[in-house]
């Protein structure tokens, strides 16, 4: 055991791992900081690059880009009032007013340290909770698996857009698309429309690259904004002095940091929710508990810290369902799950028994990434204000080229590029109709799990009843019903509460 | 324009699900498969759900936004002129991507087609100078090709 631990520790702090993490974090921060480029897009595009790498290096790159990307979103939120990633939307509320007051450097550093602290607390919770959940997950059967996957899609549909119906249509459409090609139980052909290219189904990764990469590029190019007005950083300000100032701010707020981290981790652990919601919930909790409520929205360090701590804590939380159940917590973790599958890894309840070393490695990489977020994030404070000035008209055609490479490189099929193109257009239409893309991606990723478990369950009983009568299944169904019906009842019968 | 567009999209999704449902029922009728646990059951269930939700979406729009839809339909020409830049940019990026992916790449290969695509798009959307645009597109496409082919051992189309 001791020898094993030393071996894993050495592999984490090896020169190779550190190099990949440094590159990943830097790339993630840059991508997250540039409005229009998201962490999800970067991870999706990088899948092709990491395909040729060994598993540990690929995981190090994907995880560090993801974490770096979520953190990087705070930079444009603070300097431009434009969240670089959706999870930084709450950060902009207080980050930008602080930058306008001339405290851009301090605000950026509070976000940096807060993100890393949140991430590290999240990793601690992951390390404690995941083995326990994994043991419990061994008792879960096909009925419960089916409902948990549906739960993830449904919650994502409920939270990622203004309209629940549109979210549900998107999620179910994702599931419907996965039915094209070989039937996973009998192996017969279905719904291929006579195309030989569709025999293997719609390739999941090119579809995701299209939905995130190509869609984003078209949206940015057709938008009115081509460059952003930036709140400049004072270059004469000493970085070390600002770092000490920001650290003192955080040390004064230990309870807020801890509560936001715990909220972020647990919300991240709910399948289908992710960092976007975590930051809002933590922000709202911080505002309700604060003695200086009136400062929120006008440049409050408490609001900034709550939002940034929670969204990075959630990046650790999403690994709880991903590693223990094989169910992604959000769109980015769905893409990471796709990457893990490419390397022959099948996360799930037995993953903690079969791949113990890899689990330790992932936890170690998460710790290492959070440490490098502090180092690189602090060092890049002044450079990043220049990077985010980049023009959409130059960066987006390059994103399209990477989307083409990413979708082709996985299996060397030109048809996959066409899939990427078509899904890019579908994603664009969905955006224009205010239809969320995340539920569709979760549907595409979870389609296989949902159908296989649905039919396995039917083969055992030849009846739909156990889906509603088994205790855990029934509990999930009741929770889903409450989550969907409660807002409607509240809106209809108790409008005063809404106000 | 957006209300009308949303209506058309919801209707297309409805038709798409309906098509899947019909095709799945045809698979289900095939005697070699069990109807309850066969390959048709899952697509039938999911397409039914999509039909119900998209139908609800369509109805909601008809009830809520009927007036706006009719107004948008009447002003379609004015709206088109008003959002001319959006449509032109959309057409250019989609058409250039289409030509790049489906026509140029199979004909002249990745490197030259990428250079051409980048040249046109950065010149038009990035408003770059001609020489700068040529240098960027050629350098970028060749270095990407080199990076993937010689460093990552990944072949490009």
Task: Write down the overall mean pLDDT of chain A.
Answer: 84
Q: Radius of gyration of chain A from the CA trace?
A: 22 Å
How large a portion of the residues of chain A is in β-strands, by DSSP E? under 5%
Annotation field: number of helices of chain B: 6
Strand content of chain B: under 5%
H-E order of chain A: HHHHHHHHEEHHHHHHHHHHHHHHHH
Poorly predicted tracts of residues of chain B: none
Distance between the termini of chain B: 39 Å
Rounded Rg of chain B: 24 Å
Query: How helical, in percent, are the residues of chain A?
Result: over 70%
Oligomer state of the chains in this structure: heterodimer
- Looking at the structure, what is the overall shape of chain A? globular
Keywords:
heterodimer, A: 499 residues, 2 strands, 75% helix, globular, B: 157 residues, flat
Précis, in short:
By secondary structure, chain A is mainly alpha-helical.
How would you characterize the overall build of this protein?
The complex is a heterodimer of chains A (about 500) and B (about 160). Helix content of chain A is about 75%, strand content about 0%. Chain A contains 24 helices and 2 strands. In chain A, strands 1-2 form a two-stranded antiparallel sheet. Chain A is globular. The model of chain A has no long low-confidence stretch (mean pLDDT about 85). Chain B has about 160 residues and is mostly helical. Helices cover about 85% and strands about 0% of the residues of chain B. Chain B has 6 helices and no strands. In chain B, helix 1 packs antiparallel against helix 2 (about 40-75), helix 4 runs antiparallel to helix 5 and helix 5 runs antiparallel to helix 6. The longest helix of chain B is centred in the middle third of the chain and has 34 residues, at about 40-75. The model of chain B has no long low-confidence stretch (mean pLDDT about 85). Chains A and B meet through helix 3, helix 8, helix 9, helix 19 and helix 20 of A and helix 1, helix 2, helix 4, helix 5 and helix 6 of B.
């Amino acid at each position: 055991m001791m020898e094993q631990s030393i071996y894993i520790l050495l592999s984490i702090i090896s020169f190779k791992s550190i190099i990949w993490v440094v590159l990943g974090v830097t790339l993630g921060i840059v991508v997250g900081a540039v409005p229009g480029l998201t962490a999800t897009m970067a991870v999706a595009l990088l899948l092709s690059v990491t395909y040729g790498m060994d598993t540990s290096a690929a995981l190090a790159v994907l995880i560090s880009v993801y974490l770096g990307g979520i953190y990087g979103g705070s930079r444009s939120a603070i300097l431009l009032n434009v969240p670089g990633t959706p999870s930084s939307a709450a950060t902009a509320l207080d980050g930008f007013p602080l930058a306008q007051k001339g405290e851009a450097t301090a605000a950026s550093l509070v976000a940096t340290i807060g993100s890393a602290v949140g991430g590290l607390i999240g990793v601690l919770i992951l390390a404690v909770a995941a083995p326990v959940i994994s043991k419990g997950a061994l008792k879960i059967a096909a009925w419960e698996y089916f409902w948990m996957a549906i739960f993830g899609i449904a919650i994502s549909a409920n939270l990622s857009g203004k309209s629940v119906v549109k979210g549900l249509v998107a999620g179910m459409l994702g599931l419907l698309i996965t039915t094209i090609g070989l039937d996973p139980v009998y192996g017969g052909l279905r719904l291929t429309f006579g195309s030989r290219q569709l025999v293997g189904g719609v390739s999941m990764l090119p579809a995701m690259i299209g939905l995130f990469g190509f869609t984003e590029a078209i949206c940015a190019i057709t938008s009115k904004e081509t460059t952003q007005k930036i709140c400049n950083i004072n270059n004469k300000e000493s970085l070390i002095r600002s770092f000490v100032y920001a650290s003192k701010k955080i040390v004064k707020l230990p309870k807020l940091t801890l509560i936001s981290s715990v909220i972020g981790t647990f919300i991240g652990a709910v399948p289908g929710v992710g960092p976007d919601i975590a930051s809002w919930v933590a922000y709202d909790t911080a505002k309700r508990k604060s003695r200086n409520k009136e400062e929120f929205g006008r440049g409050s360090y408490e609001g900034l810290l709550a939002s940034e701590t929670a969204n990075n804590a959630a990046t650790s939380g999403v690994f709880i369902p991903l590693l223990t159940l094989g169910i992604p917590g959000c769109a980015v973790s769905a893409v990471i799950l796709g990457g893990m599958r490419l390397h022959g890894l099948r996360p799930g309840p037995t993953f903690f028994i079969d791949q113990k070393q890899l689990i330790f490695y992932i936890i170690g990489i998460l710790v290492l990434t959070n440490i490098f977020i502090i180092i690189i994030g602090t060092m890049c404070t002044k450079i990043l204000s220049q990077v985010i000035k980049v023009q959409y008209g130059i960066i987006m055609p390059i994103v399209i080229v990477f989307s083409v490479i990413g979708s082709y490189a996985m299996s060397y099929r030109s048809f996959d590029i066409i899939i990427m193109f078509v899904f890019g257009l579908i994603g664009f239409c969905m955006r224009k109709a205010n239809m969320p893309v995340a539920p569709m991606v979760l549907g595409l990723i979870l389609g296989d799990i949902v159908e296989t478990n649905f039919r396995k369950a039917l083969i055992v009983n030849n009846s739909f009843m156990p889906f509603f009568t088994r205790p855990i299944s029934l509990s999930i169904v009741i929770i889903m019903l409450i989550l969907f019906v409660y807002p409607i009842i509240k809106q209809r019968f108790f409008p005063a509460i809404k106000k | 324009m957006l209300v009308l567009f949303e209506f058309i999209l919801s209707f297309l999704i409805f038709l798409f699900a309906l098509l899947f449902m019909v095709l799945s029922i045809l698979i289900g009728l095939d005697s070699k498969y069990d109807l309850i646990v066969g390959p048709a059951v899952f697509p039938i269930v999911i397409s039914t759900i999509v039909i119900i939700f998209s139908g609800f979406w369509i109805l909601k729009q008809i009830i809520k936004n009927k007036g706006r839809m009719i107004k948008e339909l009447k002003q379609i020409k004015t709206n088109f002129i008003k959002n001319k830049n959006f449509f032109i940019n959309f057409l250019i990026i989609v058409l250039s991507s289409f030509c790049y992916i489906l026509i140029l790449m199979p004909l002249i290969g990745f490197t030259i087609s990428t250079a051409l695509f980048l040249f046109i798009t950065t010149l038009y959307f990035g408003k770059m100078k001609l020489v700068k645009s040529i240098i960027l597109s050629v350098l970028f496409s060749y270095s990407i090709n080199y990076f993937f082919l010689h460093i990552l051992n990944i072949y490009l189309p």
